[in-house]
From TrEMBL:
GO BP of this protein: aromatic amino acid family biosynthetic process; chorismate biosynthetic process; shikimate metabolic process
GO molecular function, one term: NADP binding
InterPro entries membership: Aminoacid_DH-like_N_sf, NAD(P)-bd_dom_sf, Shikimate_DH-bd_N, Shikimate_DH_fam
Keyword annotations: Amino-acid biosynthesis, Aromatic amino acid biosynthesis, Oxidoreductase
UniProt domain Shikimate dehydrogenase substrate binding N-terminal: residue ranges: 11-93
Record organism: Flavobacterium cutihirudinis
Pathway it works in: Metabolic intermediate biosynthesis; chorismate biosynthesis; chorismate from D-erythrose 4-phosphate and phosphoenolpyruvate: step 4/7
Protein name, as recorded: Shikimate dehydrogenase
Keyword Kinase: no
One cellular component term from this protein's GO annotations in UniProt: cytosol
Record has Amino-acid biosynthesis as a keyword: yes
PANTHER family the UniProt entry points to: BIFUNCTIONAL 3-DEHYDROQUINATE DEHYDRATASE_SHIKIMATE DEHYDROGENASE, CHLOROPLASTIC, SHIKIMATE DEHYDROGENASE
Lineage: Bacteria, Pseudomonadati, Bacteroidota, Flavobacteriia, Flavobacteriales
């Protein structure tokens, strides 16, 4: 094909051989429409290795960012989109024409788009399990959907409750439970967040950002009690396509 540009993209993270993004974009780029594009994993042990990575790969046009660098990467960027600034986490980086790095968050978009079809009038409040970078995008999406939320962590802090406080009353008050922790990811598929699963009902949504396995122990436990369940696969597709649009605008 005439006039095809060779462009490199990649995923920034730690221990990311399992990565969804590499498989997704490699398959996407196998289509002749996208010939010339390539995608690879950049597995770095510390975020300060990013400076050398960029210096040694001057032809990079964009990066996705995953655990544990969605927050740590921000000081290395020249600019943030308005929403990434509000969220406080970045999962997409665009290399601008003048060589600057601009951070975006497409996690919130992917989560919002995948959750919205499941919502019914009785789904009024959400519990967010975990307080890492991914949880920040989820929280922002819930704000846009006018759904109040509370964070859950292993340590209670201001505006955060710990797992020990979750009981039947909690499940009465919160109808959407979202796992933003890595607990239950392959290969540790028997692990799950420490919840009283017996209080899930058919009026609850259990959403897990994990996509491998497709049905985590968290989702299995909730499903047994009648809850509507959803894994993170669709969210990842939506956020990846949003990132692709950002890199091409």
């Amino acid at each position: 094909m005439i006039g095809i540009l060779k462009r490199r993209f990649g995923l920034l993270g730690r221990n990311i051989s399992y990565s969804f993004s590499k498989g997704y974009f490699t398959e996407k780029f196998s289509d002749e429409v996208f010939a010339g594009n390539s995608y690879e994993n950049f597995d770095i042990s510390e975020i300060d290795h990013l400076t050398g990575l960029i210096k040694n790969n001057p032809d990079l046009k964009g990066l996705n960012v995953t655990i544990p660098y969605k927050e740590q990467v921000i000081p290395y960027l020249d600019k943030l989109s308005r929403k990434a600034q509000l969220i406080g986490a970045v999962n997409t980086i665009k290399f601008t024409k003048n060589g600057k790095l601009k951070g975006y968050n497409t996690d919130y978009y992917g989560f919002k788009k995948s959750l919205k079809p499941l919502l019914e009038p009785h789904h009024k409040k959400a519990l967010i399990l975990g307080t890492g970078g991914a949880s920040k995008g989820v929280a922002y999406a819930l704000e846009e959907l006018d759904i109040p939320y509370t964070f859950v962590s292993r340590e209670a802090k201001e505006n955060i409750i710990d797992y020990n406080l979750i009981n039947a009353t909690t499940f009465d008050n919160f109808q959407i439970i979202i796992n933003c922790t890595p607990v239950g990811t392959s290969p540790n598929i028997e692990a799950c967040p420490d919840l009283p699963y017996e209080f899930f009902t058919d009026r609850h949504i259990a959403y897990d950002l994990i996509y491998n396995p497709a049905e985590t122990q968290f989702l299995k436990n909730a499903k047994e009690r009648g809850a509507v369940i959803k894994n993170g696969y669709d969210m990842l597709i939506f956020q990846a396509e949003k990132a692709w649009k950002i890199w091409n605008k």
